[in-house]
Specification:
The complex is a heterodimer of chains A (423) and B (179). In chain A, 9% of the residues lie in helices and 30% in strands. In chain A, the strands form 6 sheets. In chain A, strands 1, 2, 17, 18, 21 and 22 form a 6-stranded antiparallel β-sheet that branches. Chain A has a 5-stranded mixed β-sheet with strand order 6-5-14-9-10. In chain A, strands 7, 8, 11, 12 and 13 form a 5-stranded antiparallel β-sheet that branches. Chain A has 423 residues and is mainly β. Chain B is mainly alpha-helical and 179 residues long. Chain B has a domain of 106 residues: Cytochrome Bc1 Complex, Chain D, domain 2 (Orthogonal Bundle), CATH 1.10.760.10. Chain B has 6 helices and 4 strands. Chain B has a two-stranded antiparallel ribbon with strand order 2-3. The N and C termini of chain B lie far apart (62 Å). The chains are: A mainly beta (423), B mainly alpha (179). At the A-B interface, strand 5, strand 6, helix 4, strand 14 and strand 15 of A face strand 1, helix 5 and strand 4 of B. Chain A: Its EC number is 1.8.2.1. Chain A: It comes from Bradyrhizobium australiense. Chain A: Keywords: Metal-binding, Molybdenum, Oxidoreductase.
Chain lengths: 423, 179
């Protein structure tokens, strides 16, 4: 098939150099005619490298990234007194696509990562059920399984953007408590049906087998809807840091509720009021009240490139690439702005577009070398639009810590340096 | 083989096949509630699940000093470990435009949560190691430091759920949860 090359100039779509997304839709770009290409001197003569002259290395049992990619690692602050307490962050500014490599998926742990022998692990279902049941991992693995691609986002992600002044942090430090995997496991509803749910059961208390026995209360409707007991993450067994041998997946719900190292589901009439659903993961509002049981991670997006630490190298063409997701459904639209939200143009959305899964968006930008403020604004298929920081603050104030989802801003200066700002 | 016998044979095979199809996989093992008890550490805000035992703040101080103070600070103020957080103080700081200091005293809505959390997750280096009496006593000490109960008030399965926390009415439902 002969591909028709489109040589038409790419038209601007919004202010300060945002170009039409048809570059991505048609896969062509008229370089030169519109001045969108980087001007370069002629290249050096090509060298034949040593790795083309002798055989390469042998096979290994489990592949590792190239040593040249050694900087692509999770970001975390050491906590020598309490190792494994706190979080490590997905290096979002160094990744592409929608799937997070399993070894780079963020982790949030409350008492370290337990070293669980799967043969000794058990999942018990009890409380308001007709038949209390206990499952070995081997027994769980015999049920018909389901796979789905879903994000998990920590309720505390991006919380630093509540601060009165914008902090000099990069995309990973700000937004890195989100990841996306293909998760495979058994529907919780299958197991609850086998145990026989009593009519009085309204909540399911999920508990982990870590030293903190992390515990959250989940509405029975969610447990019976799309909750999974997962064994597999991106085709291999769930990593210890993400809940080996089995974890709970509650698509779209606050990360903390997706209990790792799942050992117990207790059906009850009321919530447990556990530490992590009262003193934490509640949102203190402008008045003295706090929202409690804030389940969905609402519509959100951020720009991964350009971003702090990834400076622009002179005026010209740049791809703006980022992620958008919604715990309430699918992403319908992402818009981008290079003038701090004065004008917007739709970004191209990279398929597949799945409910409760991140979408990679891309926009074309012709940087003229002047100041710019890059923003992205996502809309989901419930019609919910990502708020501005001012709109977000007007509704709930900036004391809430959790579930920060307002539009984020990167300022580009004349040197091409990128910084976190409020705009 | 005569025709009627053949038909009977086919019918019985059909019966077996449809019975097999109708049965969902069931791989859970029944377990008696008494055998679950060692794992059932959930305590509801109504106190269901609280074990027998008792303790007072006076008794709890030594336990706090031995197991808690290194991270949470003397008398629950000024924790040395930022992740540990302050346990005491902050009452009044939830008011509008103030910087909130969220502690057991200023923010936690239920005293049962304190007992539940200490029992499941603390002391950090040796969780699930305190006795029920020690748990009641150290819970009482933290509540007493917050001015919520007296130094000699006895905490037990009956009194703990009846402790009224200052911020018990401080929580409202999120208006946009899925139906």
């Amino acid at each position: 098939m002969i591909r028709k090359i489109n040589r038409d100039p790419v038209e601007p779509a919004a202010g300060n150099g945002i170009l039409s997304r048809r570059i991505f839709l048609e896969g062509t770009l008229a370089v030169g005619a519109t001045g969108t290409g980087l001007s370069c001197a002629s290249a050096e003569p090509l060298a034949v490298q040593p790795w083309m002259k002798t055989p390469g290395s042998g096979f290994v049992g489990y592949g590792q990234p190239s040593p040249f990619e050694s900087k692509v690692v999770k970001a975390f602050l050491p906590s020598p007194a309490t190792p494994g307490v706190g979080a490590s962050r997905t290096p979002l500014h160094l990744l592409e696509g929608m799937i997070t490599p399993s070894g780079l998926h963020f982790e949030r742990s409350h008492s370290g990562i337990p070293d669980i022998d799967p043969d000794q692990h058990r999942l018990v279902i009890h409380g308001l059920v007709k038949r209390p049941l206990v499952f070995t991992v081997e027994a769980l693995s015999r049920y018909p399984m389901q796979s789905r691609i879903a994000f998990i986002e920590c309720g505390g992600n991006s919380q630093v953007l509540n601060a009165p002044q914008a902090q000099p942090l990069n995309a990973t430090a700000i937004h890195g408590l989100v990841g996306c995997s293909e998760w495979t496991g058994v529907p919780v509803s299958t197991l609850l049906d086998e145990a026989g749910v009593e009519p009085a059961a309204r909540w399911v208390i999920a508990e982990g087998a870590d030293a903190a026995a992390m515990s959250r209360s989940i509405p029975i409707a969610k447990a019976m809807d799309d909750a999974l007991v997962c064994f597999y993450q991106n085709g291999e067994r769930v990593r210890p840091s993400n809940g080996y041998p089995v974890r709970l997946l509650l698509p779209g719900f606050e990360g903390n509720m997706n209990v790792k190292w799942l050992r117990r589901l207790k059906l009850t009439a009321g919530p447990a009021m556990s530490k992590d659903e009262t003193s934490k993961y509640t949102i203190l509002l402008k008045d003295e009240k706090a929202w409690q049981f804030v389940f969905p991670m609402e519509v959100k997006s951020f720009i991964a490139r350009p971003s702090p630490g990834l400076a622009l190298r002179g005026p010209g063409f740049y791809e703006i690439s980022g992620l958008a997701w919604s715990g309430n459904g699918s992403i319908r639209q992402v818009e981008v702005s290079a003038d701090g939200g004065q004008s917007w143009a739709p970004a191209a959305l990279q398929g597949p577009i799945l409910p409760k899964a991140p979408v990679r968006f891309r926009a074309a930008w012709q940087w003229n070398g002047g100041p710019a403020v890059l923003q992205s604004r996502a809309t989901d298929d419930t019609g919910m639009v990502q708020p501005t920081r001012a709109q977000f603050a007007a509704e709930r104030g900036l004391r809430g810590v959790y579930h920060y989802n307002a539009i984020a801003s990167w300022r580009i200066d004349e040197m091409g340096e990128v910084n976190n700002v409020y705009a | 083989m005569s025709t009627p016998k053949r038909i009977a044979g086919c019918l019985s095979m059909l019966t077996v096949a449809s019975a097999a199809l109708a049965q969902a996989p069931q791989f859970g093992q029944p377990i008696a509630p008494a055998d679950i008890a060692p794992w059932d550490i959930s305590i509801g805000p109504d106190g269901v699940g609280l074990p027998p035992g008792r303790g007072t703040a006076i008794e709890g101080e030594a336990i706090y000093v031995a197991y808690c103070q290194a991270c949470h600070g003397e008398k629950g103020i000024g924790p040395s470990n930022a992740l540990a957080g302050a346990l005491v103080g902050g009452i009044g700081t939830l008011a509008p435009d103030k910087i909130p200091v969220k502690t057991v005293g200023s923010f936690w809505p239920y005293a049962t949560t304190l007992f539940d959390y200490i029992r499941r997750a603390m002391p950090f280096q040796e969780s699930k190691s305190l006795t029920a009496d020690e748990l009641y006593a150290v819970s009482a000490y933290i509540l007493h430091l917050n001015g919520i109960i007296g130094a000699t008030d006895v905490l037990d399965a009956h009194s703990l759920p009846n402790v009224r926390m200052p911020n018990q009415d401080g929580f409202i439902p999120f208006p946009r949860n899925p139906k």
